């Protein structure tokens, strides 16, 4: 799994909107706080709107605001919606599995599955609220410790 600039910028925009939850922000304000160009940000906000993470308000005092509460926005879901599967290889993907001719005796597939499961475990248990409140999951040894 690789998070592109689109995924990174979408999370930045959600964080900025979350910091101003309930308030409408112009695209210019969001752009200044995220350091993302207005043109690219418009495309990203349209996708976030399509998935019901944000809503827009028209008019002189228009702009964007969160559609959901920050505790309802799951980071794993956001990344999957914008970037696709979390698996590093298609043969280990749950949502977009593609068979491989070497799969039957493949000794790498368990590794890719573990990577997929670990990434999914962390992202699916993280909400926008967790990020806003700096409640990030820490990996320590073989245990995942949740700071909540």
From TrEMBL:
<dbReference type="InterPro" id="IPR036388">
    <property type="entry name" value="WH-like_DNA-bd_sf"/>
</dbReference>
<dbReference type="GO" id="GO:0005829">
    <property type="term" value="C:cytosol"/>
</dbReference>
<protein>
    <submittedName>
        <fullName>Rrf2 family transcriptional regulator</fullName>
    </submittedName>
</protein>
<dbReference type="GO" id="GO:0003677">
    <property type="term" value="F:DNA binding"/>
</dbReference>
<dbReference type="InterPro" id="IPR000944">
    <property type="entry name" value="Tscrpt_reg_Rrf2"/>
</dbReference>
<dbReference type="GO" id="GO:0003700">
    <property type="term" value="F:DNA-binding transcription factor activity"/>
</dbReference>
<keyword id="KW-0238">DNA-binding</keyword>
<dbReference type="Pfam" id="PF02082">
    <property type="entry name" value="Rrf2"/>
</dbReference>
<dbReference type="InterPro" id="IPR036390">
    <property type="entry name" value="WH_DNA-bd_sf"/>
</dbReference>
